[in-house]
Specification:
Distance between the termini: 37 Å
Helix content: under 10%
Number of helices: 0
Structural class: mainly beta
Order of helices and strands: EEEEEEEEEEE
Shape: elongated
Number of strands: 11
């Protein structure tokens, strides 16, 4: 499975950015796609995910500001980030997960894309 991220960069507080992730070389269905982020000195944390059934899950700190959208036919997942705050400054990672009947979970991460929000 190959994950290619795009987007990110520098934004002013209150501004917007859009992240995109395209998945390729997967030979089985990807059940969950989404985004995590990790700031320096902090643990990686969930931002938002979308499953294959159309359900999405967002962290409380992004509700009302960030929107996740997944296109299963194109194997893409986007994260529209509005009302950005300096605390959103992090490296954002695309994430995929597939779960099999035997309980095995296959997880993959993108290389990460930097988002910096200036005050």
């Amino acid at each position: 499975v190959q994950l290619v991220e795009s987007g990110g960069g520098l934004a002013q507080a209150g501004g917007s950015l859009r992240l995109s992730c395209t998945v390729s070389r997967n030979i089985y269905p990807i059940h969950v796609m989404g985004w995590y982020r990790q700031a320096p000195g902090k643990q990686r944390e969930l931002v938002a995910t979308a499953d294959i059934y159309g359900n999405s899950n967002c962290a409380d700190f992004v509700k009302g500001r960030f929107t996740i959208s997944r296109d299963i036919t194109k194997s893409t997942v986007d994260l529209q980030m509005n009302s950005l705050q300096p605390t959103d400054t992090s490296v954002y990672y695309c994430y995929t997960e597939s779960t099999f009947d035997n309980g095995f979970r296959d997880v993959h991460w993108g290389q990460g894309t930097q988002v910096t929000v200036a005050s």
